């Protein structure tokens, strides 16, 4: 969502007369679009800010913090961080050109002005703003913003406000536009994407309508909540040829008491029933998840339930994190963050080790098969290798000397080896 928001900001700034540069030495204005969801992201922003201190001492420079951290830590950033000139929360990006212009003008007059716009909106969806996209293969399209779920660990309802969905007509027009621009894949975005609703349109209907846009090769969506999975949505994923056979199904915990404290609104049993229902419809759908280890008061036995959940579901991949308290959340206000750091780390390590073994086995099962792979570009480790994704979102790497391929092309590749995270492929003859 932050990448998409950066595309919106680029578009709004260009319309406001600004010119973009990725060269920080030449920039008059440096903006950081921030995430507040985990401690790591928070630390990164403060590291970047301290890097900018020296630059700002040498010449006039406007520094802005955008996004969830601006929203959640506005007092801290306004009162204690002299470096920051502009703050804009996720619903206030339309005000950015004005805030920046005022900050530049103030600096020219030798003044310091801190401009901030952090009001949350019940209506802002940026429906009329066409994002300035860079990536040429995948286009993100936000279909809804905000979240009403108030999971107790999560800061999103406070930084991004309440749920609001875009009109389907605007989304479909944007989908047709990105296809005309040459994008091959669309990823529909929302904090709680499958709670999308506009009139009598629900998410399943929207997903099928986007996948029916002529010329699109693949449609993905992220992130869904397990509570909003009607049969029509499972059927759309299972049977529409353009909807990718991948569902990210955040579990967060495998223990009912912890799920209750997290306010996830489903039980372990209900979650497992959903997994069974998805696999009964289509066994080939790749399932991935998010897990939080060491949530407030989680005992060893409760953690063991999460460990067993991973072993039972056997996800293709899992994003596993230590619980870190976020300011203003229900958990921060009501529960003690009382699981020692060492215990949280041990639990994460145990889950990561288990998941790595499961992912390794799952990926090994693809050896010998031929899979359609959407080429994204060069592999991270070497420009001699191409990299793409299967329909199930598994990374595939191959030697370009053997199969050139170009971004956006779908190649049928033969899988000859695998690791826990990657499939290795060659040409299929
Ligand atoms: S569903 Fe829960 S975890 Fe996801 S954005 Fe909403 S409050 Fe946060």
Provide a descriptive summary of the structure in words.
There is one protein chain. The chain has helices at 2-15, 39-58, 68-72, 74-80, 96-108, 156-159, 168-180, 203-211, 231-239, 256-262, 268-281, 300-313, 330-334, 341-364, and strands at residues 29-34, 62-67, 86-88, 115-117, 138-142, 144-145, 164-165, 185-189, 197-198, 201-202, 218-222, 246-248, 286-293, 317-322, 370-378, 385-390, 395-399, 410-418, 422-427. It is an alpha/beta fold and 429 residues long. A five-stranded mixed barrel has the order 15-16-17-19-18. A hairpin with a 4-residue loop joins strand 16 (385-390) and strand 17 (395-399). It is globular and about 70 Å long. It starts with a helix and ends with a strand. The structure holds iron/sulfur cluster (SF4). Residues 147, 149-151, 154, 156-157, 191-192, 225 line the site of iron/sulfur cluster (SF4).
| Oligomeric nature of the chains | single chain
CA-based gyration radius: 23 Å
Write down the overall mean pLDDT: 94
CA-CA gap between termini: 39 Å
- Summarize the amount of helix as a percent range: 25-40%
Layout of SSEs?
Elements: H1 2-15, E1 29-34, H2 39-58, E2 62-67, H3 68-72, H4 74-80, E3 86-88, H5 96-108, E4 115-117, E5 138-142, E6 144-145, H6 156-159, E7 164-165, H7 168-180, E8 185-189, E9 197-198, E10 201-202, H8 203-211, E11 218-222, H9 231-239, E12 246-248, H10 256-262, H11 268-281, E13 286-293, H12 300-313, E14 317-322, H13 330-334, H14 341-364, E15 370-378, E16 385-390, E17 395-399, E18 410-418, E19 422-427
Parallel strand pairs: 1-2, 2-3, 3-4, 5-8, 8-11, 12-13, 13-14, 17-19
Antiparallel strand pairs: 6-7, 9-10, 15-16, 15-18, 16-17, 18-19
Helix pairs in contact: 8-9, 12-14
Bound molecules: iron/sulfur cluster.
């Amino acid at each position: 969502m932050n990448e998409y928001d950066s595309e919106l900001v680029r578009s709004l700034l260009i319309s406001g007369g600004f010119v973009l540069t990725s060269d920080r030495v030449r920039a008059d204005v440096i903006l950081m679009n921030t995430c507040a969801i985990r401690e790591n992201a928070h630390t990164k922003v403060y590291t970047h800010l301290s890097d900018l201190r020296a630059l700002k001492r040498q010449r006039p420079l406007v520094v802005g913090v955008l996004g969830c951290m601006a929203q959640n830590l506005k007092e801290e950033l306004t009162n204690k961080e002299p470096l920051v000139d502009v703050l804009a929360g996720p619903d206030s990006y339309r005000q950015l050109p004005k805030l920046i212009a005022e900050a530049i003008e103030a600096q020219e007059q030798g003044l310091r002005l801190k401009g901030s716009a952090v009001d949350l909106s019940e209506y802002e969806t940026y429906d009329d703003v066409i994002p300035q996209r860079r990536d040429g293969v995948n286009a993100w399209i936000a279909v809804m913003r905000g979240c009403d779920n108030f999971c107790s660990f999560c800061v999103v309802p406070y930084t991004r406000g309440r749920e609001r969905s875009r009109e389907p007509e605007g989304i479909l027009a944007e989908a047709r536009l990105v296809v005309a621009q040459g994008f091959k894949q669309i990823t529909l975005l929302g904090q709680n994407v499958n709670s999308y609703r506009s009139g009598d349109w629900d998410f399943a209907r929207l997903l099928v309508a986007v996948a029916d846009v002529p010329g699109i090769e693949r449609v993905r969506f992220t992130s869904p909540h397990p509570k909003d999975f009607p049969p029509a949505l499972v059927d759309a994923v299972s049977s529409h040829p353009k909807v990718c056979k991948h569902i990210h199904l955040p579990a967060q915990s495998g223990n009912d008491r912890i799920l209750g404290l997290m306010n996830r609104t489903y039980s372990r049993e209900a979650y497992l029933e959903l997994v069974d229902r998805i696999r009964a419809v289509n066994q080939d759908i790749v399932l991935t998840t998010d897990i939080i280890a060491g949530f407030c008061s989680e005992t060893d036995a409760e953690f063991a339930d999460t460990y067993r959940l991973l072993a039972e579901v056997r996800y293709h991949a899992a994003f596993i994190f230590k619980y870190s308290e976020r300011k203003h959340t229900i958990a921060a206000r009501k529960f003690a963050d009382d699981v020692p750091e060492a215990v949280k780390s041990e639990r994460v390590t145990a889950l990561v080790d288990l998941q790595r073994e499961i992912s390794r086995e799952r990926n090994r099962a693809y050896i010998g098969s031929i899979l359609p792979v959407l080429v994204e570009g060069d592999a991270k480790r070497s420009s001699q290798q191409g990299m793409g994704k299967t329909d199930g979102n598994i990374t595939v790497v191959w030697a370009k000397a053997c199969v050139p391929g170009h971004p956006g092309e779908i190649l049928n590749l033969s899988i000859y080896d695998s690791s826990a995270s990657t499939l290795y492929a060659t040409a299929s003859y």
